Automatic annotation (TrEMBL):
Name of the protein: Two-component response regulator-like protein
Xref: SMART domains: HTH_LUXR
Residue ranges of domain HTH luxR-type in the record: 15-80
Entry keyword annotation includes Hydrolase: no
Ion transport listed as a keyword: no
A Pfam family the protein falls into: GerE
Length: 82
């Protein structure tokens, strides 16, 4: 059994670790994904190519260990990444 304060510290460290795994740009892309935007719409919003967004999305999925946008959005909301 873990002491409640130790559990709080562990959760904070875990959350910060996840945030540190994502680049600033990946977090921006994730925020737009959560809004339901397509890769093309995100690319237009961030003034980059759609291919660049696809690369960011792939990295986000890998770093968060998820396989689709819905899982990424849920993870982001549950872990207060957005």
């Amino acid at each position: 059994m873990i002491h409640p304060k130790a559990q709080d510290v562990f959760e904070t460290v875990s959350q910060n670790h996840t945030t540190n795994k994502l680049s600033k740009r990946e977090i921006e892309v994730l925020r737009e994904m959560v809004k339901g935007k397509t890769n093309k719409e995100i690319a237009e919003t961030l003034f980059v190519s759609e291919k660049t967004i696809k690369t960011h999305v792939s990295h986000i999925f890998s770093k968060l260990q998820v396989s689709d946008r819905t899982q990424a959005a849920i993870y982001a909301m549950e872990n207060k990444l957005i």
